[in-house]
Amino acid sequence: MRLENQEKVLALIDSDQELKPNQKSQLFYWGFNKEDDNRYVATTEDLGSFIEKIYSYLNKSFSDITFSPECRKIYSDYCDQKSNLAETVLRGSNFKSGVFEDREFRKFVKFLDGKLTRRLRDHQKKSAYHLYLVKNGANFSVPGSGKTSVVLAVYEKLKAEGLINVLFVIGPPACFGPWKYEFEQTLGREPDYRILAGGNSTERMNEYYKFGENLGELYLATFQTLLNDQAHARSFLSNNGVRALLVVDEAHYIKQIDGEWAKAVLSLAPHAAYRYILTGTPLPKGFTDVFNMFDFLFPTYPPIDDQAKLQIEQFEKQKMLSDAKSVLDSRIGPLFYRVRKSDLGLLPAVFHEPILVKMNHYENLLYDGIVKKIQNYAKEDYLRNIDLVQRLLRGRVIRLRQCTSYAKLMTTAIDNYDENLLVDEKDLESVIANYDKLEKPAKLVKLIDMVQVLQKSNQKVVIWSNFRKTLRLIKRELAKHGFRSEMIYGDTPTQVTALSDEKTREQIRDEFVDEESGLDILIANPAACAESISLHKTCFHAIYYDLSYNCAQYLQSLDRIHRVGGSEINQAHYYFLQYENSVDQDILSNVRRKAQQMNDIIEKDYEIYSLDMFEEDGEVEAYKRLFGDGGR
How far apart are CA 144 and CA 542, in angstroms? Predict the structure, then answer.
């Protein structure tokens, strides 16, 4: 009996024709086809595990199984990887259970205390040692816990040991500034960095082929650019002179199975010396969200194998969540570390009671007119198809949200929604067209009052809104009252995309957090500024002019001013402007409920969960709460 292979094809040669009918049936079940009287072949993507399965099965009946040299090497390497993962899991499990060599841990901490400019907190030292022990691991600590500093600390230790010489980070553009800043603050030196995103493509390509004295220390790449550059990135990481620690920051961006970004990142994994993933929201929608993450960490022998993935998916479909959690925890529990919010020693944030504002005459007229139209239309919705109804429900609630932000938004187009709620209402359409001449939003007037109070006490403030026109409206009104402000929203260029003299997000952020800059007001969109930007060292007040149903963005925006490195001594304050008897109350109630669910999960050491924080149909559910189910 002999096993041979050629690329992804495994051949079984039964020279003595000893296979019994039931054994042949089993081989056929596993995908083998008979080529001739004694040769059976099967194609597989995962040759190592397939060889192991076939060998284990045949070894029960045959003692003379041999391998071709290449097949023997594949099987041997696979067994080594399996053994290495088992040892890694044991090290991680022991450490999280408190079983580890105290002397080695103290030596590790002594190195950090002696080499790092920034002194790590106890929870960061433990997080760092966990990554150091497991070699390829995940940090799922809550936002604001200092995950970047943790990775930089381990990088410095591995670099000192000669195990790595390059830190290669893949993430959203907004993370570039924090990585460069934290590098200098943590390690005490400016990084020799390379930006592998946007810009001149020829110059960017050249960076992948600079080695020796021209090799950088910190490489920063975006998911989008990596999609185009993956072959060059693989060539760079595979070079003999490069020993890279490959980090995926905000790793929830690669959760989509078979997603293009995920496939690009996974293609790099085998070529790195070490691999880490960072995210504070590892499972935003379900259990399968971590599959790609751990395939990245262990590309040749993933801890969640195909059988386990299938089992988890089935449990999740059947709502057997505790069973899915049990399977997943047993596979990945020792390989990640998570710091809870309560571990950070931060002062509790102050959530002020919502500030209820009465609408002015014309915005109230518009809001009531839209509500009445929706109530009338709802009776006819049962005659439409489900897909159309879903789009209508979502669009109508967005119109309500727009109205409670800035009435002029009512003329803004909404994707997949072209219903005119004010058809045959010429007076109301005229109000919208001439709104700026008729009145100022009552929220805006109240906002200016609040800013004036904060400015008198020399407090910086970030103002959040989800609509670009509203951001511009607020900026104009602040300027009229003599207040200087800057905006960060989708069109604000990043350091990667800047092509003009326009300020970048990084420049605006740096100026805002500078106590002496004179820039004390930042107006921002959560979609563009809620992630990877820290404001907590000098800003302790946030005003929410309006909200969306996106709980993830809400939670991330909260963490901009409530983080390690400032919030231990400065209390964060949150204020919510709300129109009376409007959709504003439903939105705040909804995101707070989800935030509490999330908090209940996070405050446990780690809990596998299924919470749709990034849901796109929040408006649909809101419509059903506010207006019923559209006749269904």
Answer: 16
